[in-house]
């Protein structure tokens, strides 16, 4: 297999266990990337790691330079990208601390630079997005979860919202009516841009709160941090299993 890249989300500004790290700061035609790319070894395999929110988690979802991030990872040789995603749970079975490997996505974002088909001389790309996540990489990820002993839903629909605010209860009702099981703020245009560059892309989603109106009371940072801390170790185990399969 080729080179695996991991994009870290909330709670993953660093990648535990990454050995022999080398810092890469490539220029891109689309401006600066979120943070330096770390190239190192995990389970003996060379991988790339990029924190999408920046080193200090200072980039809100709508300000992330998704085009630069995906382009830079491909320029460094990545042909597979795993996007880590801390999400809210909408439907039954997707409560806090549960895991999923989404197979579908609905895009509710706006105003983001969402395609490479933009600007003078840019190629016009009509990519097929019937299956927004790579089936082969999804299967590898599901096998990695099994080897790591992590119970995971093998299908889920991710609703990508604009952020950085959380959704209203009525918005979550709409997402559920549209068929969404999970809600997050960074799944798009990341997945579509990877498809435009012919990079296999999949996501490991872990639920850190009930979505608005689905739990008891308001969504709090304390609640999210507690569930995130519980999930972090299992995410790291899955990554080790996935890297060892490379």
Give an overview of the whole structure.
The structure is a single chain. The chain is α/β, with parallel strands linked by helices and 246 residues long. 26% of the residues lie in helices and 25% in strands. It contains 5 helices and 10 strands; from the N terminus they run E-E-E-E-H-E-E-E-H-E-H-E-H-E-H. Strands 1, 2, 3, 4, 5, 6, 7, 8, 9 and 10 form a 10-stranded mixed sheet that branches. Helix 2 links the parallel strand 7 and strand 8. The longest helix has 24 residues. It is globular. The N and C termini lie close together (6 Å). The model has no long low-confidence stretch (mean pLDDT 93).
Tell me the layout of helices and strands.
Layout: E1 3-8, E2 19-24, E3 37-42, E4 45-51, H1 66-75, E5 78-89, E6 99-100, E7 104-107, H2 135-148, E8 157-160, H3 169-177, E9 182-184, H4 190-196, E10 200-210, H5 221-244
Parallel strand pairs: 1-4, 1-5, 5-10, 7-8, 8-9
Antiparallel strand pairs: 2-3, 3-4, 5-9, 6-10
Helix pairs in contact: 2-5
Provide keyphrases for this structure.
alpha/beta; globular; 10-stranded mixed β-sheet; 246 residues; 26% helix; 25% strand
The computed structural class is alpha/beta
Helix content range of the residues, please?
25-40%
Indicate the proportion of strand residues: 15-25%
Describe the global form: globular
- N-to-C span: 6 Å
User: What integer is the average pLDDT?
Assistant: 93
Total helices: the number is 5
Structural Rg = 17 Å
SSE sequence, one letter per element: EEEEHEEEHEHEHEH
Number of strands: 10
Largest sheet: 10 strands, mixed
Poorly predicted tracts of residues: none
